[in-house]
Amino acid sequence: MKTLDRYEKQVLSAFETGKLKSTVTSEASLRRYREYARATLTKNRRVNVRLSTQDLSELQTRAAEEGVPYQTLIASVLHKFVTGRFAEKPSRLTARSNGRGRKRRAA
Q: What is the pTM of this model?
């Protein structure tokens, strides 16, 4: 097992002493987060997908923005898509990669 760093030890100590409080305000939210966790943990098939270098780079950047591993982000997006809960929202990355948000020069 990996050794915990200083911050992780502080978090663990706070949890064990009951200093951490849940931010979930409703039973519906709690059920939703439990379902997210269950879907994340029940991965029993492997899929290989070929992506362009640019798409993979942008996925990795977006995952870093979200604070998750890029494979987790890909799995989450696919899960939301197939369950009908995918809602795209623009990001700084999207604006950069497709040219929107740039000022155009006069010809």
A: 0.46
Return the number of other C-beta atoms located less than 10 Å from residue 33's C-beta: 12
What is the distance between the alpha carbons of residues 69 and 10, in angstroms, rounded to a whole number? 23
The H or E element that residue 26 is part of is none
Q: Are 1 and 8 in contact (CB under 8 A)?
A: no
Q: Which residue has the tokens 């270098």?
A: 53
Residues (pLDDT < 50) of the chain are 100-105, 107
**Of the candidates 53, 88, 89, 59, the residue with the CA atom closest to the CA atom of residue 71:** 59
Q: From CA 64, how far away is CA 49, in angstroms rounded?
A: 20
Q: What is the dihedral of CA 16, 17, 20, 21, to 10 degrees?
A: 110
pLDDT of 77 reads 87
